[in-house]
Amino acid sequence: MSFPWAKQFQPTSEVGKWIDQRLPLPRFIFNALGPGYPTPKNLNAFYNFGVLAGVALVIQIITGVVLAMHFAADTRVAFDSVEHIMRDVNGGWMIRYMHAVGASFFFGVVYIHIFRGLYYGSYKPPREVLWMLGLVIFLLMMATAFMGYVLVWGQMSFWGAQVITGLFSAIPLVGPTIQTWLLGGFSPDNATLNRFFSLHYLLPFVTFGVIILHVWALHIPGSNNPTGIEVKTESDTIPFHPYYTAKDFVGLGIYLILFSAFVFFMPNALGEADNYIPANPLSTPAHIVPEWYFWPFYAILRAFTADFLGVPAKLWGVLAMFASILLLFLLPWLDTSPVRSNNYRPLSRILFWVFVAVALALGVCGGAPAEEPYLRASQLLTAYYFAHFLIILPIVSKLEKTKPLPNSISEAVLAKYSKAGSGGSSGGAPLAQPAE
Amino acid sequence: MASEVRQAPVENLGSGGERRRDFLYIATAAFAGAGVVPVAWSLVNQMNPSADVLALASIDLDLTPVQPGQAIKTSWRGKPVFARHLTPEEIASAKKVDVASLRDPQKLEDRTKAGNEQWLITLGVCTHLGCVPLGAAEGEVRGDFGGYFCPCHGSHYDTAARIRKGPAPKNLEVPPYQFKSPTSVTIG
To answer: What is the CATH number of the domain that holds A365?
Structure first.
């Protein structure tokens, strides 16, 4: 599926033709990421983050496969085998730091990718399935990251496993049975470590499969764009290759510079020092905190400190934490405004930035110890988080008076260009910067 | 399906419109299901605790060396267990409390075995967020009520290991145990 003006794949060599008739893989790549994919010509830098997330996953898979060659999933030696990687394996320290920092960066780019989708209304029809597949990938990432963190078998690994599997014990009646089943025992132990290693190795490949579905679903309607309006004619688009491949490589270069800065100069800046202490089931760290990318959700979990409506506080926390993500699956039906991009929604645009601030503030609370004023703040911020999606957004999308939309992407681009470059050369000049 | 209906001879239709082939479909699905369900269950069940884990699910504990006022720590099912030899004063102070005023109302008698009231055996897992409270080892802080104190978020437990102050919702859990002899117990 593509626009009728998409370039057609034409193998030039005899070998190319022979392959195309038997397994048209080059044709598939040509249509997915090559000249055969017409893309809106106004995509900005934020549209780079999908590709960056893909690169981040590939880095995790490659470094992860290498680490698995040296890691031993046994509680007696797991921690030591990680230190063995750090000290004895040739270049092992670099591989492990790439994997640890890579996890943080993966979440970083995915969060920007998600907020990009929120700002430009990329979840709205006809892209609901695309959006939901993205959320599935996010959930898979969270499960994978959590289990990978446990493998190190440090103090935070152990107590993180205890707390996270303990969430399931909040389920009425069957909770403790489920927790025992997940752990394969009555507390995190060898059975837990082994199954987490197995699943940690499996889930990235499941994620990769869902990403293929995600990209497939993207190519049915084509990419959204900062104006949020549909592609109408060929003049609204440029071929993905060479235009966006070139642009994405610039972003990738910046990403890798930042990534290298962390890997080589501050590899532990994003981690918890306590995880360099071997796991000890008889001694708890004073503050159990997950990695930074889970902080907002951890804050929601801890925000419930009192029983109410006959439901225990712990169960409320667990339900709210899962609901905070599952709610996003309903977003295409909660936000009913026909205008996608917040560039044309003055009220919704302000609320978007308020929501970003709330999410960041929840992150700060989740990383802080469970005491005042962070608990009270978590409670207010959690209330706003849910109100944003369940009350504010549905009402605003009904009442808001949106700005007039441009007639086409091309018109919007040309209007912007003639404003910026008035007095200078015009006419043919926009073609010189089609990617902007 | 439509083409199959067309191919099916009319005389094969039963009174309710069912075909002989429907029987084959149902029989195939039932047979496959009978095979798939037990296999699926064994794939789920393999994640439950294995025999060697369950073999350690109960432990024996010798209480002979524990003098009144002392406690020992051991590990049961991967969790710390505190076994404490209460002094007569500690027993008296635990009994003095008005049970109705407690957050998790329980008497000392409910938390110990009859005839062995001086032995307070509980899990060393704070009921707030699962930290290990202080107070079992010699010289550790025992909190405002002389029992246990959780340093993570400041929960104070009394000499019956009942929650008295702080965020924890429940008393320290009493594991299932039996006295085998006056100085030896089986936990689990």
So the answer is: 1.10.287.980
